[in-house]
Write a structure and sequence with these properties.
single chain; 292 residues; MetI-like fold; 2 domains; two-stranded antiparallel sheet; globular
């Protein structure tokens, strides 16, 4: 009896881990193993097949931190992320506020604002490339200009950032719409009675009410912007020069064009650390200074 009770007790302790095993297995194969392999490769020089051959320790990292091209890619990425995050959040918030009212055709407008979420970045980039074409592009036709938007270092990064911001604005619109639906309408009614105008309501009621959603959206947008790749690959391929050579595209180019898999792995680890540190800083700031 005692042995049976002990087995039953042991079984109850093991049971939760058995339920977790499938998910842990999937995480292990598709997340933990690739991450560990990336760290391993970052310490080696590799052959063209990506196999580790010569152990160099931190040599790949030292090489990156003495490379002007790497610092340029970090600088370009920071500017790109700033533009994308600000624009995508502004577009999503504007759309959500405009659609937070009942009027005929509201569903059509809501669908239109959320549509970027359903469009593949590759197809959007191809359409955007045609729109920005110097000769036949609709942008130059409407503005009566002859600018080669994606071949000019002054405009290329902004063009890619605008496209990415528009693609991200769809999901932001849904987040903000859900947040606005949870704000009590009686607050706006009381504010109207007290004589508050639309701008005062927005800054004193809407934004504070969206506090948790704004923070969540900020974190998600920053992470997504750092990982943007398809738009750059189709529109500019890192050019002209290195004006749109985001760190993700630099990783792709080092790995699959230059066959420097060790260097690409080191860049990946650095990108991971940048994103992780930024996320931790944002959470720390949010805990210290934001009150909802």
């Amino acid at each position: 009896m005692k042995i049976g009770a002990e087995k039953e007790k042991l079984g109850k302790k093991i049971e939760p881990y058995l339920f977790l095993m499938p998910s842990l297995l999937v995480f292990g194969i598709f997340l933990f193993y690739p991450f560990a392999k990336t760290i391993y490769l970052s310490l080696f020089k590799t052959n063209k097949m990506g196999q580790a051959k010569i152990f160099v320790g931190l040599g790949n990292y030292i090489e990156l931190f003495t490379s002007k091209s790497f610092y340029n890619s970090i600088g370009v990425t920071v500017v790109f992320v700033a533009i994308v995050v600000v624009l995508s959040m502004a577009l999503g918030l504007l759309g959500a506020v405009l659609c937070n009212r009942s009027f005929p055709g509201i569903r059509i407008f809501s669908t239109a604002y959320a549509l970027p979420m359903a469009i593949a970045s590759a197809s959007a980039a191809l359409i955007f490339k045609i729109m920005l074409h110097q000769s036949v592009g609709i942008i130059n036709k409407l503005l009566h200009l002859e600018i080669n938007w994606i071949s000019d270092p002054k405009y290329a990064l902004v063009c890619v950032a605008v496209l990415t911001a528009w693609l991200n604005s769809g999901i932001n619109f849904l987040y903000f719409s859900a947040g606005l639906a949870n704000i009590d309408e009686t607050l706006y009614e009381r504010a109207s009675v007290d004589g508050a105008n639309g701008i005062q309501k927005f800054f004193r009621l809407t934004l504070p009410g969206l506090g948790p959603i704004l923070f969540y959206t900020l974190v998600v947008d920053v992470i997504q912007a750092f990982q943007s790749f398809g738009q750059v690959k189709i529109l500019t391929q890192g050019g002209p020069g290195e004006s749109t050579n985001l760190i993700v595209y630099s990783i792709y180019r080092d790995a699959f064009f230059n066959y420097r898999f060790g260097t690409a792995a080191a860049e990946s680890i650095i990108l991971f650390l940048i994103i992780m540190c930024l996320t931790l800083v944002m959470f720390k700031i949010e805990k210290k200074g934001v009150k909802y």
